[in-house]
């Protein structure tokens, strides 16, 4: 499989007071068109990742909005898979091209989250869990990941509190080098440990924030992409699913769907884990990054702590992870996150990542999780 990337566009992530859902989406779309050097009418189909348009902005039908923004009558749909909505939209775009239904596709992700209270956001996000078993009983997403952190750190005691905090310290270090990141401040282990407790053991600085933002990427068939001298291709797309609730999960110390999705993507791309030069992973909470690097095979089960002990996951380390700043520092506008991860992969493979550039990057993977692991989507990107 080989689908080219023609262009990318991304808005600033954070609390964007002066833009609504529509304007954020439009800004990213226009930036991607400009980068791709194509006109909107050349697009055959649009896929837009969005989770909370209805619950936080009263706006459903975001697929139609994406087409209307560009004055197009082309096929355009919203894709929803909780926090994995963006990568699911990307996968739909890849499949549309692979099936021959489309030659050029625009994939978007957008979320407007900061116009309502944290309580409203927390309730809306809990729709990604199991309402009967979890939401109804008072669980929240920080609570769910705190349970995973407790289970993991009980089984694997070598992941100390300080090493878990290192995940956020490293992601803030990268975020400080990313112009569109929500948080551009470097922090220390003490910042994480001394911050307000959200859900034991996770403090404020173990959590991704609430974020507005949008991202767009334009894909094309290999033939068109080659003709347009594209430097980056998607060569693998793996998707796997598991139970909505943690109660029905086979493991609380891993995210099984992550490993399955990764193997599916690697096998399609014909790569081995050793071929990977960098990864953008779903660190909605610090423990999620630990589970992600193990799911991708970058560390054996229970051994991710070694990567953080050795500082391997920095952009100039042996296994760079989340050079964008991840969800923690870059921000997590739910539907846009999966597309943002793809944009970071493209920036790295084009050699445009400036002071967070991974040296000689040729292969990168993105890993995007919906809920507490009920959906995981992994893509492989190759630079040429
Ligand atoms: N990391 C660091 N700082 C953060 C932060 C975060 N995750 N979230 C908020 N802040 C900062 C704000 O910038 C603000 O700083 P300021 O006072 O200097 O302006 C301060 O903390 C208070 O912000 P506020 O928005 O009032 O925080 P809150 O208490 O309402 O929300 C959380 C904090 C952690 C509860 C919220 O960000 C959250 O729910 N995050 C998880 C989102 C989630 O579940 N996503 C889905 C994952 S699957």
SSE blueprint and pairings:
Blueprint: E1 3-10, H1 21-36, E2 45-49, H2 53-57, H3 62-69, E3 75-79, H4 85-98, E4 104-111, H5 118-125, H6 141-155, H7 161-175, H8 189-194, E5 197-199, E6 202-203, E7 213-221, H9 222-227, E8 232-241, H10 256-269, E9 278-280, H11 286-295, H12 305-309, H13 326-330, H14 334-350, E10 363-370, E11 375-383
Parallel strand pairs: 2-3, 2-4, 9-10
Antiparallel strand pairs: 1-7, 1-8, 4-7, 5-6, 8-11, 10-11
Helix pairs in contact: 4-14, 7-11
The structure holds coenzyme A (COA).
Name a few traits of the molecule.
384 residues; binds coenzyme A; 18% strand; Peroxisomal Thiolase, Chain A, domain 1; 2 domains; 14 helices; globular; nine-stranded mixed beta sheet; alpha/beta
Tell me what you see in this structure:
The protein is an alpha/beta fold. The protein has 2 domains: 3-116 and 211-232, Thiolase/Chalcone synthase (Peroxisomal Thiolase, Chain A, domain 1, 3-Layer(aba) Sandwich); 128-209 and 234-383, Peroxisomal Thiolase, Chain A, domain 1 (3-Layer(aba) Sandwich), CATH 3.40.47. The protein is 38% helix and 18% strand. It contains 14 helices and 11 strands. A 9-stranded mixed sheet has the order 3-2-4-7-1-8-11-10-9, with helices on both faces. It has a two-stranded antiparallel sheet with strand order 5-6. The model has no long low-confidence stretch (mean pLDDT 98). Bound molecules: coenzyme A. Coenzyme A binds next to helix 5 and helix 6. Coenzyme A (COA) binds at residues 83, 118, 122, 125, 141-142, 198, 204-205, 207-210, 284, 332.
């Amino acid at each position: 499989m080989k689908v080219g990337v023609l262009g990318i566009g991304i808005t600033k992530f954070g609390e964007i007071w002066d833009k609504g859902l529509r304007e954020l989406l439009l800004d990213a779309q226009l930036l991607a068109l400009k980068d791709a050097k194509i006109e909107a009418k050349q697009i055959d189909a649009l896929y837009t990742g969005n989770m909370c348009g209805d619950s936080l902005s009263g706006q459903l039908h975001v697929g139609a909005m994406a087409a209307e923004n560009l004055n197009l009558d082309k096929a355009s749909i919203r894709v929803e898979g909780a926090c994995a909505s963006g990568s699911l939209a990307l996968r739909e775009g890849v499949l549309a091209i692979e099936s021959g239904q489309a030659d050029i596709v625009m994939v978007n992700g957008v979320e407007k989250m900061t116009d309502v209270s944290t309580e409203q956001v927390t309730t809306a996000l809990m729709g990604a869990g199991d309402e009967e078993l979890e939401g109804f009983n008072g669980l929240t997403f920080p609570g769910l990941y705190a349970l995973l952190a407790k289970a993991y750190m009980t089984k694997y005691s070598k992941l100390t509190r300080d090493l878990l905090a290192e995940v956020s310290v490293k992601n803030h270090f990268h975020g400080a080098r990313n112009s569109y990141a929500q948080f551009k401040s470097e922090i220390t282990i003490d910042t994480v440990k001394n911050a307000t407790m959200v859900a034991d053991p996770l403090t404020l600085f173990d959590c991704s924030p609430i974020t507005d933002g949008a991202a767009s990427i334009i894909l094309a068939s290999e033939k068109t992409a080659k003709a347009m001298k594209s430097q980056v291709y998607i060569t693998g797309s793996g998707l796997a699913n598991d139970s909505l609730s943690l109660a029905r999960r086979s493991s609380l110390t891993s995210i099984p769907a992550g490993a399955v999705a990764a193997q599916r993507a690697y096998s399609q791309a014909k790569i081995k884990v050793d071929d990977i030069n960098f990864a953008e992973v779903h660190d909605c909470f610090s423990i999620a990054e630990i589970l992600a690097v193990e799911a991708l095979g970058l560390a054996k089960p229970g051994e991710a702590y070694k990567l953080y002990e050795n500082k391997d996951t920095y952009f100039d380390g042996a296994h760079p992870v989340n050079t964008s700043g991840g969800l923690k520092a870059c921000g997590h506008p739910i539907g846009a996150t999966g597309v943002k991860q793809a944009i970071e992969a493209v920036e790295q493979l084009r050699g445009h990542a400036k002071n967070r550039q991974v040296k000689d990057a040729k292969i990168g993977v993105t890993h995007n999780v919906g809920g507490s692991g009920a959906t995981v989507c992994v893509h492989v990107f190759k630079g040429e």
